[in-house]
């Protein structure tokens, strides 16, 4: 009935490892499904949830003057029946991740799960990192995009992660002491990393 | 003056059933569809008991419970959590909320996992309200 949370740098290859791990252990792989679950609960579209996840600041109105064009925000908000802000987002995130963990046998990708399940029994927290160059290369290969675009994507995702954790009041997500295991996937193949994680879970 | 019981639940069927049980037991039912509305009614009506769902739009029961138990004006109002979420999940979520800056609060007076028999809920109301 174990739970594994995987925190990662975007483009590190963590999704590949998470999926392989889930298959090997027969666990449920939970990644973007959390967005769907939150959107269903809040009666808003997944895009609205992603907007809340991706933007910094404390209020929705702040989005309008910062990174997202007003027309995009307006078009998303006008089609919503419910409402979600950062506080509601955090409440749903906590409740949904806690429910998934209580059911057990799950691999949960990111979204502050290492904090939400900090003291949860039978839970392992893993951080996966990789060199910036490797991460750009990974995105180029996976998305079939230019180096310039891949670099921009990685930088934007790093910013999104920083914003999301900032919103959760957490700045220490790269602190190794939060995790049972930290692996640099630039120095381990996915299969070697998989063996390391399996050894930890099965010990 | 009959005692007032506030039902905070986003499910219209649950609201209707609970209203019936409350009134059958001789109390006055107040109704809110989400945590935000629930807080407004609590401020205005000072209910004697709150029946609180957890997963609701606008403001979750997790947050409202924490607000009530950390506010001197409301912390003595008994709260019965009535949810499809297991008690241990709720308690762990409460701890996680503290991790994200929330206040530590006591466990709910009574925690009932849905579905709840009307007799059971009626007994809880009578035990808490007399």
Keywords for this structure?
heterodimer; A: 203 residues; Rossmann fold; 5-stranded parallel sheet; 10 helices; B: 130 residues; alpha/beta
Care to describe what's here?
- The complex is a heterodimer of chains A (203) and B (130).
- Chain A has one domain (3-202): 3-Layer(aba) Sandwich (Rossmann fold), CATH 3.40.50.
- Chain A is built from 10 helices and 5 strands.
- Chain A has helices at residues 14-25, 33-42, 46-54, 60-65, 70-78, 86-103, 113-116, 132-143, 147-167, 190-202, and strands spanning 3-8, 28-30, 106-109, 123-129, 181-184.
- Chain A has a 5-stranded parallel β-sheet, with helices on both faces.
- In chain A, helix 1 (14-25) crosses helix 10 (190-202), helix 2 (33-42) crosses helix 3 and helix 2 packs across helix 6.
- The longest helix of chain A is centred in the C-terminal third of the chain and has 21 residues, at 147-167.
- Chain B has 130 residues and is of the alpha/beta class.
- Chain B has one domain (4-129): Rossmann fold.
- In chain B, 45% of the residues lie in helices and 18% in strands.
- Chain B has helices at 12-24, 35-45, 61-69, 87-99, 118-129, and strands at residues 4-8, 28-32, 49-52, 79-83, 110-113.
- Chains A and B meet through helix 6 of A and helix 4 of B.
